[in-house]
Write a structure and sequence with these properties.
InterPro entries: Scramblase, Tubby-like_C. The chain is built from four helices and twelve strands. By secondary structure, it is α+β, with helices and mostly antiparallel strands.
Length: about 200
């Protein structure tokens, strides 16, 4: 993992835009310095654009974001969500698999696997889908991700979401990278449709 994400506190935010502006993120350190940006990869045809403007259950659609340095010039990671909510992978730009989030209970628990498909931990989700606890194989907490409530109007009318990530170091790789990417993966899986659930 890049040294950019070695800080134990991260903030992940989506810009405040209309509901058609999906899958854009800023990753910052605890002081608000931008460490990386992410944007959805690939171009969309007219049908895809309309589906994004009127999303319904858009979190079921496949999508991927490319995480780059703040200038957008150096690719760092790809977070790739398959159709549905069953599998989200994290890869390096050269295609090397870092790990996967695999749904065990939709919206409640995700299994973390490394690039060799070995289980390395889990993500436990609370009932309102606002708190995500990353644990290792022994059940020890390695990270906590909290989605901040921005109010009903912001929730329903924009893509704006904010997450706070606290990592309990030291955490070995690739579990640490997966913990750092939990906010983006969970947002893509659970919060992009903007449904009240």
């Amino acid at each position: 993992m890049s040294d950019l994400f070695k800080t134990p506190v991260l903030k992940v935010e989506q810009p405040r835009r209309g509901p058609f502006a999906k899958s854009r993120y800023k990753v910052m350190d605890g002081e608000g310095t931008v460490l990386a940006v992410a944007a959805e990869t690939g171009d969309h045809g007219r049908g895809e654009t309309l589906r994004h403007m009127f999303p319904g259950k858009s979190d079921l659609d496949p999508r991927a974001v490319l995480l780059t340095d703040p200038e957008g010039t150096v690719p760092l990671l790809i977070v790739d969500k398959a159709g549905g909510r069953m599998l989200t992978s994290v890869r390096r730009p050269d295609g090397e698999m870092v790990g996967t989030f695999r749904t065990e209970r939709i919206g409640r628990r995700y299994l973390l696997h490394d690039g060799a498909d070995e289980k390395i931990g889990e993500v436990e989700v609370d009932l309102p889908r606002q708190n995500f606890t990353v644990v290792d194989l022994d059940g020890g907490r390695v990270a906590h991700v909290r989605k901040k409530w921005n109010g009903l109007a912001t929730h329903l009318l924009t893509t704006a979401d904010r997450y706070a990530v606290e990592i309990t170091d030291p955490v070995p790789e690739p579990l640490r990278t997966m913990a750092a990417m939990t906010a983006i993966a969970m947002d893509m899986n659970l919060h992009e449709s903007k449904d009240i659930t």
